[in-house]
Amino acid sequence: MQDEVKLTTRGRYAVMAMVELSANGFEKPMPLSEIAGRSNISLSYLEQLIAALRRNGLVVSHRGPGGGYLLAKMPDQIPVADILKAAEDCVPAKRQTSNSSTINDQTRELFKHIGEILHVCLSKVSLADVLDRRLHANPHMMKLFDSLG
Asked: In this predicted model, which residue has the larger pLDDT, 37 or 112?
């Protein structure tokens, strides 16, 4: 079974928060209130996202005066797919429905396949690529777009 990624608002906000942390550097931890303000994300929502990012080893916390959060790794070592998957880690479990009509099975299969494609692509795109606006120059993305015609 292939890993898959979902594009959600939660994932989008997690990437935004990671971009803010990365732009802040590695010397001074960034408080949640500052990340929330710069990203225009509510503090309570951001707390949930950061907790999931921390559990997945993408950020580290520093307590006390001057405390906050830093990236746990260099931006070029953090695939966007990992950020998106970590963001979904804090979503409450959803109840599986027993309604499995043919149409639902077909669409479920479609979106699972799309998620697998996204995982393959976004595993090759790093946070540094996003920061440096190198998405079009990323060889993996160029190969994908070339194959699409």
From this structure: 37
